[in-house]
Structures are given as structure tokens and as C-alpha cells.
Design brief:
Elements: E1 5-8, H1 18-31, H2 38-42, H3 49-59, H4 66-84, H5 96-105, E2 109-113, H6 119-125, E3 134-136, H7 149-158, E4 165-169, H8 172-180, E5 184-188, H9 191-194, E6 199-201, H10 209-217
Parallel strand pairs: 1-2, 1-4, 2-3, 4-5, 5-6
Helix pairs in contact: 1-4
């Protein structure tokens, strides 16, 4: 059987940690008297912590010292970690285990490709770490998506050529990174946002076993 590489982003694809980022950023923004909405949170998806805080400060027309900047970043992460420390298997998004199980059964190579520095901790919490042959997260990369570095490292670790890899992503930058890496991009979310992906599904409940099998065989 042909061996393909299946690479999954974490936040918004395997688990929904976006809500925890939202709560943590909102608390931080409000502490600086900056209003923070769900729409603004969307713009921070797949964006590094430093860039996210820079964006929030620019939206609120605020300048702060470098020391305060560092302190706020640490505080935000502490807050976020506090939320994810309470996670369990119920947080896994619908039908993700089915798809992972199918890929395992068909002896495909599976990797995580996430910007999150907390990816390993989260996979531990939801009991999915053993499903992955490789884990590439924010600790392993120097360039953020839309740079394809994270996916190219994953392909290398899986020993699969980039053009034989399939990427599941929920962010604009992530889909772009997959496309630049010459991989098949599958957007998880809405076509309005992720229309540049090769395929788009609302979530994994829309992805049939037949579709996965066709990706392996073609």
C-alpha cells in the first residue's frame, strides 16, 4: 500500500483550544483597558504570541515597556496553561479519533504540525500522543506559518516526500504554508475563510472513510 504523510495542526483541528486563547487574550487586553472581540481573536489564529500582543497593543493604541511586554506574555501563557491543564478526552473534536484510527489501520505516517509550544502537553492531556509518529511544534521551528518550515520538518521526520503529504489546517496562514510546501491542503472550517485550500470541510464529521482512502491511493 502507498504510504502518505498525514499532518495535523492542533488548535481548531484536533482540539478546540482557540476558546482558551480567547479567554486569556481577552483578560490581558481588558487589563490594559483594550476591548477584545471574537473577530479580533480570529485574526490571532496561527500567529505567534509576540505578534499577537503587538496586534492587541496597536488596536488599543497602547505602548508599554519591554519589561511589561515580557511580563504580559508570561501572564497570558500562564493563564492559558491553567485552562489547558483541565483538559481531557472530551475536548477532542468530533470524528478526529475515527480518522486517526483509519490512518493507523492503513499504516499511514501521521504527524502533528503545530505552532503551539504546548502541543505535547495538550496531546498528553487528551490521550492522543501515541497516535503520532512525529510531533513538530513551536519548540522545533524558527519560522511561523505561512512559512512551510513546520510541515517540511514533519515530512522529513515521517520520511515522506512533501508532495505525498496531506495537511489538515484551520487557519489561513496554515493552508498557505501547506500550499507553499507543495502538499495537499485540507481546510477545516468555512470555505469563505479557507477557500484557498484544495478541499474544505466544516469538520471531520464531513470527511468520509472513502475520501481518506482515496487520498492514500491517489
Amino acid at each position: 500500500m502507498t504510504k502518505k504523510g498525514f499532518i495535523f495542526d492542533l488548535d481548531g483541528v484536533i482540539v478546540d483550544t482557540a476558546k482558551y486563547h480567547f479567554l486569556a487574550w481577552k483578560k490581558l487586553a481588558n487589563s490594559l483597558d483594550i476591548d477584545f472581540t471574537e473577530e479580533e481573536n480570529e485574526q490571532l489564529k496561527g500567529v505567534s504570541r509576540v505578534k499577537s500582543l503587538e496586534k492587541i497593543l496597536s488596536w488599543g493604541n497602547k505602548t508599554i515597556s519591554e519589561d511589561q511586554f515580557k511580563a504580559l506574555m508570561a501572564e497570558k501563557n500562564e493563564d492559558y496553561l491553567n485552562h489547558i491543564s483541565k483538559m481531557d478526552e472530551d475536548e477532542i473534536l468530533p470524528d478526529v479519533p475515527r480518522v486517526l484510527q483509519l490512518l493507523k489501520m492503513k499504516e499511514q505516517a501521521i504527524s502533528l504540525g503545530s505552532a503551539s509550544k504546548n502541543a505535547r502537553a495538550i496531546l498528553d492531556r487528551v490521550n492522543l500522543k501515541a497516535s503520532f509518529h512525529a510531533i513538530v511544534d513551536g519548540n522545533d521551528v524558527t519560522k511561523a506559518k505561512p512559512d512551510p518550515e513546520v510541515f517540511l520538518i514533519a515530512a522529513k521526520q515521517l520520511e515522506v516526500k512533501p508532495e505525498d503529504c496531506i495537511v489538515f489546517e484551520d487557519s489561513v496562514a496554515g493552508v498557505e504554508a501547506a500550499n507553499v510546501a507543495n502538499m495537499i491542503s485540507i481546510g477545516i472550517g468555512s470555505t469563505d475563510v479557507l477557500g484557498h485550500a484544495k478541499y474544505v470541510f466544516k469538520d471531520f464529521t464531513e470527511i468520509s472513510d472513502e475520501f481518506i482512502t482515496s487520498l492514500i491511493e491517489n
